[in-house]
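Subject: sequence -> structure tokens, single chain

Hey, anyone have a minute? Need the predicted structure for the following. Not urgent.
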Amino acid sequence: MGRSQEVERFAREDGHGEGDRENAVLVERRRDVGHRGVDDGLRGGERDEVLAAVVVGVSHYLMAFTRIAYNNLHALFWSTLAMLMIALAWRTRRVIFTWAAGCAVGLCLYTFTPALFVGPTLAVLLGAGFLRRPTRRQAAAGVLLVAAFAVVVIPAVISTPPNEMVEVLQRESKREFSASDPTSTFVYSLTRSFVSLFVNFEWHHHYIAGALLDPISATLFAMGLTGAMMGARRRGERTALLWFGIGLLLIALTTYLQEPHLTRLLYLLPPAALIAGLGARTVWRAITRVLRWPEWIGCVVVVSITAGIPPVNAYLLHVHSVRNLRIEPEALAVRALMDHPDETIVFVFHERNENLELLLRTY
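Reply:
Had a minute. Here:
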């Protein structure tokens, strides 16, 4: 339908002046364009989310942790749940999701790394949004979130003596390691933690080693990170970028050695996976918009890239995890006890190993 015909249609239906009818046509056109843009964004978002789920679900770090039921596994579920509830509260503006977000943040305090990182991350995200455009609705949502957080946390505060809380904080701060040069410790930890997303030939902790991301995911992450830093236009893109950046800073601030703490890097896996999804969107746009190839070719390319991620992570698990299982003192002790169950074995180690002591007492 041509422009003049659209104007005539509005004239017959509404009986307004020609100027009003032309404005109505322009508004209608803008709505159509807006709806098409939203639909395209939703379809692109679904592709991003599928790839992000694959990156998280088949991570060789995650598979290595599942062998020993390490408590850092909690970082994925509770931190992602808290961010999901915040995203749903932003999108729907419903009270139930705001309350659920506060409860999720409170439950994070019952785990390890989420207790350290989730609260400060959300405080920065929500505080920045409130300072940018403060409204009464946002203030009320903040009060509701804090109330839900308090309801979940108060039982633990009441049942835990204050001296035990102080003892845990002092023990976990490891001040004797970083007090000599805290600035250097932070800088080295920050840079090496970021580099460990892509390559790691030296460090290993608790049966995991190697880079956090496989080569395919790391390439997509680099593409998505570059695009997001050049101009993140959507709230989801900005949130993923800030989630990753704040988490990286917090890991460096709470690490007491000048090397990356690989077990805490697992907290960065969900935001890194989302940013890798943005990289897949860049590939899609390059194929369908820059090269102007058919969309099915873009689908084949993105699906092929996604399908290559699981076998690569399985290979990394076999290479890194198995090698570290051979040298970890806990693994050596278990192998010795299993090979010689009826003999007396004396273990000598040059430094205190709480995990090994617990294992020996258990056996």
